[in-house]
Design brief:
Strand order of the largest sheet: 1-2-3-4-5
Oligomer: single chain
Largest sheet: 5 strands, antiparallel
Helix content: 25-40%
Number of strands: 5
Number of helices: 5
Distance between the termini: 44 Å
Strand content: 15-25%
Length: about 140
């Protein structure tokens, strides 16, 4: 893939590529508010950077279950990485989140390996439920 059309993700993508991630696909939909995503992979870890109606998200997945994506901030919480600032929805915040991810990429690869994925997935579900209770009260 030569030129990234999802321009607001360029810095985050370049950072990931610099740490051994390869771009798998890029989808840009100019009709629907410029929504876009780019998927990258390194060993058993997938990263998806999403722009949805101008808001940016970073998701992480395991190649053991390629259609399942989890919020990167939740994954960082699982790995005991404290976010520097509350997560925002702009492109620079997504890039900052990617910086934190590459800082723990070895831990991430271990947790998302085929053998560890079932346990990791269960822990992520528990964190997700706890987070929802904290934020929404149920």
């Amino acid at each position: 893939m030569s030129e990234l059309r999802f321009d607001s993700a360029r810095e985050a993508v370049d950072l990931l590529k610099g740490h051994g991630f390869k771009v798998l696909r890029e989808i840009v939909d100019p009709v629907n508010f410029g929504d876009a995503y780019v998927d990258l992979k390194r060993k058993n870890v997938q990263i998806r950077i999403v722009r949805d109606r101008g808001e940016h998200f970073v998701q992480v997945g395991s190649t053991a279950e390629p259609e399942k994506w989890v919020s990167a901030s939740l994954v960082l919480q699982l790995l005991n990485v404290r976010e520097i600032a509350p997560y925002q929805l702009d492109a620079s915040s997504a890039t900052n989140l990617v910086r934190m991810i590459v800082g723990v990429v070895d831990q991430l690869e271990s947790a998302f390996s085929k053998s560890e994925w079932p346990s990791t997935s269960t822990k992520l579900k528990e964190l997700q439920l706890r987070r929802r209770k904290e934020r929404l009260g149920f």
